[in-house]
């Protein structure tokens, strides 16, 4: 009883206010030394004189109305986007049937979001992708079910960018894995061809391949035979990206312990079963970060098709800026398409981290 009364009579001493909470964090991390204090004040000053004026320009003093006179505005002219978004996003696709590409893009984005969850990775999702690809193709091209035919040459803007990137990266990854396996092969002819192809493609820039697909390749076709320019650019992007993926996957294969191969031999697995069930799942898990980095770079490189006259997202934006009414407002247009590219790249990056965390076994 006496001990209890003594404990109750002692006053409760609270920690100093300056060492806990937000104020304590500021003192410990931002004002802990004269140098840190100077750096903190310098960064705050830089933010004050840069971020605040930018927000005023981009939001407060900006012009948003499609019929606004941007020449009289003191801020950003977002009217260039609200007025020309159809041209920027869909290019020369007929304006009266824009519901078709919008529906196709919605289906694609929905499938990508669903595919982020590995719990849905089953045969039904595969069938959903196959059916959806057919539906998207029918919607975009038309020609059946009473839909007006829209030639591929009229596709542009966001449609063309997604077409080149999604289908290009989807086809390039398995091709890169095959090339990596061929380079590890014991058969001299296959190995030599794989090495020659990978080193040749990696030794030239993507721009040169795009020029070859656009200018040189048609010279070797028989007279009267032509291949759509979008398809030629798509093939060039696939071949280029696959070569880089092959080297990344080869690094993952070389990082595998020889004991894995010996264990597979001991239980009677052949080469195909060993690669499919044991080696490739582990090797591909190891190389997720560098693989995604290459895929993100390839996604951004699709904008290079502008140099061969394809109206991707960048080219349609440049076409809008060629109008004398919108000259001088290129910053707003490029910020808009940069935001689109950022969202797509951020989606890929966050998904790769999520997938890497889910596949981590702690070994």
In short:
Helix content is 68%, strand content 0%.
What does this protein structure show overall?
The chain has helices spanning 2-9, 21-29, 34-60, 79-90, 99-115, 123-141, 158-183, 188-202, 206-216, 229-254, 258-266, 271-286, 288-301, 313-321, 330-359. The protein has 15 helices and no strands. The chain has two domains: 12-60, no CATH class; 81-93 and 150-359, MetI-like (MetI-like fold, Orthogonal Bundle). Helix 5 (99-115) packs antiparallel against helix 6 (123-141), helix 7 (158-183) packs across helix 13 (288-301) and helix 9 packs antiparallel against helix 10. With 363 residues, the protein is mainly alpha-helical. Helix content is 68%, strand content 0%.
- Output the number of helix runs: 15
Run of helices and strands: HHHHHHHHHHHHHHH
CATH architecture of the largest domain: Orthogonal Bundle
Radius of gyration, CA atoms, in whole angstroms: 28 Å
Largest sheet entry: none
Q: End-to-end distance, in Å?
A: 55 Å
CATH topology of the largest domain: MetI-like fold
Q: How many strands?
A: 0
Mean pLDDT: 83
So, the CATH homologous superfamily of the largest domain?
MetI-like
CATH class bucket of the largest domain: Mainly Alpha
Anisotropy-based shape: globular
Instruction: Please state roughly what percent of the residues sit in beta strands, choosing from under 5%, 5-15%, 15-25%, 25-35%, 35-45% or over 45%.
Output: under 5%
Which residue ranges are poorly predicted, with pLDDT under 50 across at least 5 consecutive positions? none
Structural class of the helices, strands and pairings?
mainly alpha
Percent of residues in helices comes to 55-70%
């Amino acid at each position: 009883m006496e001990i209890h009364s003594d404990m109750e009579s002692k006053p409760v001493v609270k920690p100093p206010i300056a060492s806990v909470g937000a104020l304590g964090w500021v003192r410990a991390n931002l004002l802990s030394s004269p140098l840190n204090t100077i750096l903190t004040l310098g960064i705050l000053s830089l933010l004050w004189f840069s971020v605040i004026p930018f927000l005023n320009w981009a939001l407060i003093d900006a012009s948003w109305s499609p019929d606004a006179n941007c020449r009289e505005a003191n801020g950003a002219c977002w009217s260039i986007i609200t007025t020309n978004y159809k041209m920027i996003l869909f290019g020369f696709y007929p304006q009266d049937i824009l519901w078709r590409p919008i529906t196709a893009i919605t289906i694609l984005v929905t499938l990508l979001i669903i595919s982020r969850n590995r719990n849905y990775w089953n045969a039904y999702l595969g069938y959903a992708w196959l059916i959806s690809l057919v539906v998207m193709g029918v919607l975009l091209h038309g020609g059946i079910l009473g839909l007006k035919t829209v030639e591929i040459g009229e596709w542009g803007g966001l449609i063309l960018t997604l077409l080149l990137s999604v289908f290009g990266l989807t086809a390039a990854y398995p091709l890169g894995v095959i090339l990596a396996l061929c380079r590890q092969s014991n058969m001299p002819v296959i190995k030599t061809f794989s090495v020659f192809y990978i080193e040749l493609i990696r030794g030239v820039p993507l721009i040169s391949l795009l020029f070859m697909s656009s200018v040189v390749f048609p010279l070797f076709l028989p007279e009267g035979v032509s291949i759509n320019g979008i398809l030629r650019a798509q093939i060039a992007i696939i071949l280029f990206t696959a070569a880089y993926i092959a080297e990344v996957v080869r690094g993952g294969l070389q990082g595998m312990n020889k004991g894995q191969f010996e264990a597979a031999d001991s239980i009677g697995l052949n080469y195909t079963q060993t690669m499919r069930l044991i080696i490739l799942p582990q090797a591909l898990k190891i190389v997720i970060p560098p693989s995604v980095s290459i895929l993100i770079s390839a996604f951004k490189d699709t904008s290079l098709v502008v140099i061969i006259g394809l109206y991707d997202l960048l080219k349609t934006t440049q076409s809008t800026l060629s109008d004398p009414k919108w000259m001088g407002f290129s910053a707003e247009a490029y910020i808009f398409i940069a935001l689109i590219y950022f969202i797509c790249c951020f989606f890929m990056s966050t998904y790769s981290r999520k997938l890497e965390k889910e596949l981590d076994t702690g070994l």
